[in-house]
Design goal:
The protein is built from 15 helices and 11 strands. With 312 residues, the chain is α+β, with helices and mostly antiparallel strands. The strands form 4 sheets. Strands 8-9-10-11 form a 4-stranded mixed beta sheet, with helices on both faces. Strands 1-3-2 form a 3-stranded antiparallel beta sheet, sandwiched between helices. α7 (143-153) packs across α9 (174-183). The longest helix has 16 residues, at 262-277. It is elongated.
Length: 312
């Protein structure tokens, strides 16, 4: 499970500490307590005050936490509500496996058959026959099944990104994804996933790299080498997002988050200079190329591929 994904869902508040009895109750229960339990050591008014001041956080109706809950805590709170271990599915299962590219804030679980209704932040799914396995000591729909199910629900760019990320996570193989596609045949979106599966590649390192690659394929460009290693003239080596080695053309996705800051900018300039010095044409890619200016973006790559002299 991605630690960064869980951390991004944890908000910091200036909390007012609960009374000692409530604090001990929460400690013994692993940080969670029901309304009934808390009302045995404080009044309803005191409980409401603690929630307003941040001393307690309502996870779900009837279950509270001592701090802002991460994904696993939210799932444990659902266990308390239902009296059994709920099964994670869709984006929540993908997050547990580490290949959720949508970063959904909602918790997705299988319908246990009783006592659990969809509510704000909670989506309950009917998925009969879905295979399951353990991840982070919890039951979830199996990795391949989860990846295909998520890929069916999202648009083509994020569908390929999900398949790429699932392979990169090593929780499933291409053969297992193909089997999951077959088992979900006839369901909405499965034709899209089946057509994208041959293009899924574990070497893609981000969702936007997957999206950019799909744009290239849709525009008839030659399939690039992913994460290609290039050696510099002075012993350096760089791994680049996309490369066409015969033409000595490469393309790099420029993420604002990854490249922000003075040191990052200087590092990128030195890297690009080294790649150019080694005889490569460097084509930067930004989000507007992938999402809005696709024709111009692919024409730029095509121009350099046609202009470059192949290495004999």
């Amino acid at each position: 499970m991605s630690t960064a994904w869980l951390a991004s869902r944890t908000l910091r508040t200036h909390a007012s500490p609960v009374n000692s009895e409530a604090a001990e109750m929460l400690r013994r229960a692993g940080g969670l307590a029901t309304t009934a339990s808390l009302l045995s050591v404080m009044t309803r008014g005191q409980l409401d005050v603690q929630v307003r001041r941040g001393g307690l956080v309502r996870v779900w109706r009837g279950v509270y936490s001592a701090k802002q809950p991460d994904l696993l805590t939210r799932l444990r709170a659902l266990d308390i509500l239902t009296g059994e271990h709920v099964v994670a599915c869709m984006h929540t299962a993908a997050a547990l496996y580490g290949f959720d590219v949508e970063s959904s804030d909602a918790v997705h679980v299988l319908d246990p058959g009783f006592r659990l209704r969809p509510t704000s932040g909670l989506v309950v799914h009917q998925r009969r026959g879905a295979p399951m396995r353990l991840v982070s000591s919890r039951r979830a729909t199996s990795p391949a099944w989860t990846a295909v199910e998520v890929a069916r629900q999202v648009g083509r760019p994020r569908s390929l990104a999900t398949l790429d990320a699932a392979l990169r996570s090593r929780w499933c193989t291409a053969a297992e994804l193909a089997d999951a596609v077959d088992r979900q045949r006839g369901r909405r979106g499965i034709v899209k996933v089946r057509n994208l599966l041959p293009h899924a590649d574990a070497r893609a390192e981000s969702a936007m790299e997957s999206e950019a690659r799909l744009v290239m394929l849709d525009h008839g460009l030659p399939c690039p080498e992913l994460q290609h290693l290039i050696s510099g003239r002075h012993g350096e080596s760089w791994r680049v997002d996309f490369a066409w080695p015969d033409a000595r053309v490469l393309a790099e996705y420029e993420s604002v988050a990854f490249h922000a800051g003075r040191l990052e900018m200087l590092r990128d300039k030195e890297r690009f200079a080294g790649l150019q010095d080694a005889g490569w044409i460097v084509i930067p890619i930004v989000v507007s190329d992938v999402r809005r200016n696709q024709d111009r973006f692919c024409e730029r790559i095509r121009y350099h591929l046609q202009r470059a002299q192949p290495i004999c």
